[in-house]
Design goal:
This protein has about 130 residues and is an alpha/beta fold. The protein has helices spanning about 10-20, 35-45, 65-75, 90-95, 110-125; strands at about 1-5, 25-30, 45-55, 80-85, 100-105. The protein has a single domain, classed as Rossmann fold. The chain has five helices and five strands. The chain has a five-stranded parallel sheet with strand order 2-1-3-4-5, sandwiched between helices. The chain is globular, with a radius of gyration of 13 Å.
Length: about 130
C-alpha cells in the first residue's frame, strides 16, 4: 500500500514522510495540487491512503479539499487524513466517509493513530 502525502512545507513534508516510512508505510510526497493530481492518476492502483494539508500553496488556487475531491473521483472510498493548523476546517470533514481531521501541530503518534483509525474503518466497511 502506498501513502500519498501532500504538504507544501518541504521540512514538514520530509519529517512526516520519514516518520511514515519508519512506521512501515511506503510514502510518496508532493508539494502542490498539480503534483498530487498527477500522483493520484499515476499510482491509483497502489494508493491506499491520502494525507493532505488543506491549505497548500498553489499557483492555480487549488487546495487540499480539491486534491481530496479529485482523489475520491478517481478512487472512491479512498481513506483521507486532512491536516490543517486551522481547527475551523474540522467541521467540513464531518459526514465525509472514511476520513479524519488532524489539527497541526500534532505528534507523530497522533498521525499514526489517525492513520490506523481511517484504515481500520475502511477495512470494516469492505468486510460488510
Amino acid at each position: 500500500m502506498l501513502v500519498a502525502l501532500v504538504e507544501d512545507d518541504p521540512m514538514i513534508n520530509g519529517v512526516l514522510a520519514e516518520c511514515l516510512e519508519d512506521a512501515g508505510y511506503r510514502t510518496e510526497t508532493v508539494q502542490t495540487a498539480g503534483e498530487a493530481f498527477d500522483l493520484i492518476e499515476r499510482r491509483k492502483a497502489d494508493l491506499g491512503l491520502l494525507i493532505t494539508d488543506i491549505r497548500i500553496h498553489s499557483a492555480d488556487n487549488k487546495t487540499g479539499w480539491d486534491v481530496a475531491d479529485f482523489a475520491r473521483r478517481h478512487i472512491p472510498g479512498l481513506p483521507i487524513i486532512y491536516m490543517s493548523g486551522d481547527s475551523a476546517f474540522h467541521r467540513r470533514t464531518n459526514g465525509l466517509p472514511n476520513s479524519v481531521f488532524l489539527t497541526k501541530p500534532f505528534r507523530v503518534s497522533e498521525l499514526l493513530a489517525c492513520l490506523r483509525e481511517v484504515l481500520n474503518r475502511g477495512s470494516k466497511d469492505d468486510a460488510a
